[in-house]
Amino acid sequence: MPTTTVAPCRVVPLGHAWAGSSVNCKPYACEGLLQGQTGLFGAFYTDVGELAVYFVDDSTGRPRIARHAMPRAPIDAHDTPSLQLDPEGRLHVLCGAHVSLPTYLRSAPGGAPETLQNCTSELPQDMAQLTYPSLLSCGSRRDLFLLYRIGHPDCSDWSVRRWISNNPGQWSDETTPIIRGRAATSWPAGPYLNQPIAFEDGSVGLAYVWRSSAVGGGKEDPRNIGLDFLLADDGFLRLTTGTGIELARPAAPANTERVLAIPWGADLANQCGACALEDRFAAVVTCWRPPGGRRQIHFCWQDQTRAWRSRAITDFKRDFHMRGTGTLPSPHSRPIVIPVSGHRALVVYRDAVNGGRLVAKPMSGPNFAASNHPRVVLIAGGLSQYEPVAERLQSHRSGFLHLFIQRAEQKLGGDEVEHRVSEPASLQSWHIEGLFR
Prior knowledge:
Layout (H helix, E strand, L loop, with lengths): L2 E3 L4 E9 L14 E3 L3 E7 L5 E7 L5 E6 L13 E4 L5 E5 L2 E3 L2 E4 L10 E2 L11 E9 L4 E10 L2 E10 L5 E2 L4 E5 L9 E4 L3 E2 L5 E9 L10 E11 L4 E3 L5 E2 L10 E3 L12 E5 L3 E8 L7 E7 L5 E5 L23 E5 L3 E7 L7 E7 L10 E5 L9 E2 L4 H4 L1 E7 L15 E10 H4 L2
Parallel strand pairs: 1-31
Antiparallel strand pairs: 2-34, 3-4, 4-5, 5-6, 7-8, 8-10, 9-12, 10-11, 12-13, 13-14, 14-15, 14-16, 17-19, 18-19, 19-20, 20-21, 20-23, 21-22, 24-25, 25-26, 26-27, 28-29, 29-30, 30-31, 32-33, 33-34
């Protein structure tokens, strides 16, 4: 497959970052990089373990950075920060949640990082064992929701909580269950979400797999099962399939919609990327191994009938098998997918063919044939275990691909080993149309 190389049109240095794990760069971060009205917001851990929240002005390209001490140093990707703006323009940041109470920062209206205050004490007590917080902005008013997991990898539920906008505002006391893996009527499982998809009409698409120790090799060889999808409307009060069939709430293994029947033992990734295409269609990228083959990246999308289709878009020659209770270092990163105007998308991933180069694969509908466009090398290599973090909500309007870039090392031990490494971080941007030529 042909390959071209495109240099970034802008590079903004951000200082030195924590590089001992993938804490600053996980592909399913929601949102790790956020487009505001006049610039980009982002957050990462510095090389001394502080949380750095930054704003890069679109006109000047200069960063403003506020640093906050954390209760402990980051250990693994569960600590990854999530950012979002509420309807009044206040910036919300949650981080450090791994079956624990997260650190919660909130700014004054306008979102200036310098105005962030620690508001952890305001979080309701039932959020004390939270994992994977995802801050979502939905609907015409851009209402703010917090989607999160309660429980453990192979036996957990996902719930959502609304931000009540007033002065100063607060999180609702009520939670809404969305997906349940701890139900007594079926085998225990843990739903793992890809990036939530916020559609223009206010609905939210959720693509997810089920992890269970009841199938396969137990905790030492976990199996991620299937690729499921649902739509949440009316502030998450109504759940349907992708074609509009009502689902019981919360969704469970017994009543969920299986959109791709990926075989057990296919080494399916637990979390990757997802995005909205034009006209309220969804796209998902993930990885699995076909029978007798190697693990490849697959692009999955809804066609004009809302049926799901998929195709492999890589031809990796190096293979690996994920063993253990978590996601371990791999030669290729999990991919993300970024929407582009005109029913197009970019799939971004790091591959190990030439020293861990960062690649963008342009995809064009309606058939999204992998041969339609050459791959584009964004960074030639040297990123080690980096996984891409992108601004993925406004790229189709801005015309830019924005990526947070840093080298990352990942050691075995995950949430038990603190591995201190320092690497420079930057915000880098590319003209999207230049990647489709």
